[in-house]
TrEMBL record:
The chain crosses the membrane at residues 7-28, 34-55. This is Uncharacterized protein. InterPro entries: CAL67264-like. It comes from Christiangramia sabulilitoris. Keywords: Membrane, Transmembrane, Transmembrane helix.
Length: 59
């Protein structure tokens, strides 16, 4: 299976989404004192993931 540009953008967006979800969950469930920082950073990862997904097929 060959990795082209679209599959690389797809995997990158999936992995960024997983990291963002992990950060949000860590902030909400484990580190309640720092929940705002973790959540804002996780939402930033969600936005980067969305941009990578939007770039599939355009670059």
């Amino acid at each position: 299976m060959s990795m082209n540009k679209n599959s690389i953008f797809g995997w990158a967006s999936f992995l960024l989404f997983l990291v963002g979800a992990a950060l949000v969950l860590l902030g909400v469930l484990k580190y309640k004192d720092y929940a705002i920082g973790f959540s804002v950073t996780g939402i930033g990862f969600f936005f980067i993931s969305w941009v990578f997904n939007a770039l599939k097929g355009r670059v």
